[in-house]
Amino acid sequence: MQPQARPPRSRAALTLLALAGCALFALFAALGWWQAERRVWKLQLIERVEQRLRAAPAALPARADWPHVDAARYEYQPVRAQGRWLPGKTVLTQATTELGAGWWVLTPLLLDGGGTVLVNRGFIPDALRTRWREQDPLAGPAQAPVQVAGLIRMSEPGGGFLRRNAPGEGRWHSRDVAAVAQAQGLAGVAPFFIDAGIPDAGPAPVPAQALSQARAWPHPGLTVVRFHNSHLVYVLTWWGLAAMVAGAAVLVTRHELRLRAGHGAPPNP
């Protein structure tokens, strides 16, 4: 008695399964390759930033070049700028640092060469927020020219995670340069800001509550230069899934070949 041939529906199901397997394999392999390329890009970015941080502060980009300042070429670039503070235009934006929770003090600097750049002067603890306007060291007489050294940072539009900036209410969850400039009536503002101070590899700061009351605020140099790089994990995940699909295809193929070898192919009519 000859074995019965597979019904047409069974053969169609196997064909669809094979096509789906091929599509999944191609998708997982492509995603793995994309993550591999992203990993190379991220490692190159980290190397560029590390080289920038070791360089001496350079002059702030010329005002005509501001529209071309982007993260790839300028993020974390040490720079220096000279001008006069506009302390009456200061805003406080929420911050979480190694000193604890508090606020960044963001003050415009009217540049000697024209234009304005926002400067993150540093961190103050939460306890100082309500009376900062009176305690700000810049409050008072007209300011003398100052020179600021720090790192170029890109604007942080919109707000924080699930928290939108509310300029009308004075609530800032991110350092959104364009929104701050509009809310404070500033013109000719650079599309980036400066984090004052250049972080070093020294010991971690102590908690804010342990600092001396005589310590000057705001505290600069708390920029965290850190890049999330999990691309290798993603590469292994996607290529692992592709290998699983390929392995499943091999098992199904071997099973079909064994069935045919054990029972023989249906005779030709």
From TrEMBL:
Belongs to the SURF1 family. Its main location: membrane. It is a multi-pass membrane protein. It comes from Melaminivora suipulveris. The chain crosses the membrane at residues 232-252. InterPro entries: Surf1/Shy1 (IPR002994), Surf1/Surf4 (IPR045214). This is SURF1-like protein. It comes from the Bacteria. The keyword Transmembrane applies. It is found in: Cell membrane; Membrane. GO terms for cellular component: plasma membrane. Keywords: Cell membrane, Membrane, Transmembrane, Transmembrane helix. Pfam families: SURF1. PROSITE patterns: PROKAR_LIPOPROTEIN, SURF1.
